[in-house]
Design goal:
25% strand; eight-stranded antiparallel beta sheet; 20 strands; binds flavin-adenine dinucleotide; alpha+beta; Alpha-Beta Plaits; 459 residues; Uridine Diphospho-n-acetylenolpyruvylglucosamine Reductase, domain 3; 2 domains; five-stranded antiparallel beta sheet
Length: 459
């Protein structure tokens, strides 16, 4: 009698799934062995890295779960060309540490913000982005990857080999097989000076443009979460980072928040939003002018399972966690969107804990591209009570935000949840039905499956 194992995502904790077994793989042949086992027993295969996706993409009920965490070797570092080949389970802190030890010239171009223990395989499969001011999604940083197909064969996928599979698997949420290794293009490591200002969202795109023209490489806008204030979604901290000479401005003695201060801010974001934002703004303003290396400044403080520590102090009747959503709008519509989004929050009674705006350039390579044009990306992190009513409140807000975005010619990100309606999916991802058909071309028996895939097949 097989014993099922309960797995769940690590941020929202709202995607419990019972898998048949978890196979932790360490090599390509381990992965081939797992796929051979699934083929012989007729089981499905799901694939996970850091387990942070929030729509059940990394788990499939009753499947064999391939855990790639130990597929984390550096396979080749080419310091002349600035590329690194790593196992698909390699996570950002390990990669950044490796590069810091081996090179003063190269580092990663971008990674996700707000969380670090995320894998390269997960980054490719969600086609993620960071806070570059002129960057495309992560596919543009990928030179090639090795993918194990349903037959067990290993294929190299790149812009010149198996091009279609390259475009499908990047942003394909593990549905075309495990990525066992990837060759990543690196970026020159530079010292960056942070410039911080408090601005109104109506000035934002113009200011982002100014910064881009002045050579700033990274930036974001963290906005007020205090629904009771007129500043809500309007006023925020614009931070931008410009390369400076490392000889003249060595990164040292920077002011930063301790883990305890982060926890305090998280607590306040749940209980006193005005105070939380004011305190955060005060801290951020104090960092104006500080200099950072372009690698470590991309790392974040993320306290694993922070809600378990927070909950006893919140005094709430029901446990909860946060769910993120990411919305895209044409850049010129950003201010209109943010101001109109205030009504969505009001009518949905949604509980915003954190929000930020970034920029993305158009992705013209991945099949399921979300960056269909140079968008502004708006990220909302909503506290969600783990009750039917709590989940409905957040999902109503998400659908309201997606409707608003599409009215402005925008879209949303598939990574964070699956609360969008069929109509919204069709509107934002008209290529989705073709994506599912392509999946069957490459994996006729649907060996690679997930709760997310099953959901979308149903809708
Ligand atoms: C707090 C937080 C902050 C975030 N910030 C950002 C952000 O700034 N920008 C952004 O774009 N996203 C962001 N995300 C989303 C995150 O980048 C994606 O969900 C990403 O896929 C998670 O990587 P993971 O290693 O945890 O993958 P998992 O959650 O384990 O898996 C995600 C998907 O990738 C597939 N997958 C994982 N590894 C492999 C592999 N080796 N081969 C094939 N398929 C694989 C899985 O099957 C699944 O479909 C954030 C998420 C959280 C929780």
């Amino acid at each position: 009698m097989p014993v099922s194992i309960l797995v769940n995502d690590l941020h929202s904790e709202l995607n419990p799934s019972m898998v048949q077994q978890v196979l932790t793989v360490r090599s390509e042949s381990d992965v081939q062995h797992a796929i051979g086992l699934a083929a012989r027993t007729g089981q499905k295969v799901s694939i996970c890295g850091g387990r942070h996706a929030m729509g059940g993409q990394q788990f499939g009920s009753d499947s064999i779960l391939i855990d790639t965490t130990l597929l984390n070797q550096v396979i080749e570092f080419d310091s002349a060309l600035g590329t690194i080949t790593v196992g698909g389970g390699m996570q950002w802190p390990q990669l950044i540490d490796y590069l810091c030890e081996r090179s003063s010239i190269w580092t990663i171009a971008q990674k996700q913000t707000g969380c670090d223990n995320l894998s390269i395989g997960g980054a490719i499969s969600a086609n993620v982005h960071g806070r570059g001011l002129k960057m495309k999604p992560f596919i543009s940083d990928v030179e090639s990857f090795r993918l194990v197909c349903a037959s067990g064969e290993i294929l190299t996928c790149s812009r010149t080999e198996n091009q279609e599979l390259f475009a499908l698997a990047a942003g394909g949420y593990g549905l075309f097989g495990p990525i066992v290794s990837a060759k990543i293009k690196l970026a020159p490591k530079v010292a960056l000076q942070r410039l911080v200002e408090i601005v109104d969202c109506t000035q934002l795109i113009e200011m982002f443009d100014e910064r881009r023209r002045a050579g700033f490489l990274y930036g974001d806008f963290q906005f007020s979460i205090d629904e009771a204030s007129d500043d809500f979604l309007r006023k925020g901290l614009l931070s931008a980072y410009v390369p400076v000479s490392a000889d003249e401005h060595s990164p040292s003695n920077n002011v930063s928040l301790s883990t305890e201060q982060w926890k305090e801010l998280l607590f306040l974001a749940h209980t006193n939003k005005r105070h939380a934002f004011d305190l955060y703004a005060k801290h951020y303003m104090a960092t104006n002018g500080q200099v950072y290396w372009s690698d470590r400044f991309q790392l974040a403080t993320y306290v694993d399972g922070y809600h378990k520590q927070l909950d006893p102090n919140l005094g709430q009747e029901h446990l909860g966690t946060e769910i993120i959503t990411e919305i895209y709008v044409p850049r010129m519509k950003l201010a209109d969107f943010l101001l109109a989004a205030r009504d969505v929050f009001k009518s949905a009674h949604a509980d915003l804990i954190y929000g930020t705006v970034r920029l993305i350039e158009k992705d013209d390579e991945s099949f399921l591209a979300w960056a269909k044009e140079p968008f502004a990306c708006i990220i909302f992190n909503l506290h969600t009570e783990h009750t039917d009513a709590g989940i409905e409140r957040s999902s109503r807000a998400f659908r309201g935000l997606i409707d608003l975005a599409t009215a402005f010619g925008g879209s949303y990100y598939l990574t964070y949840h699956k609360y969008a309606s069929r109509k919204q999916l069709d509107k934002c991802y008209p290529q989705f039905a073709k994506f599912l058909a392509k999946k069957l071309e490459y994996d006729a028996d649907e060996m690679f499956s997930s709760d997310w895939y099953r959901h979308y097949k149903r809708v």
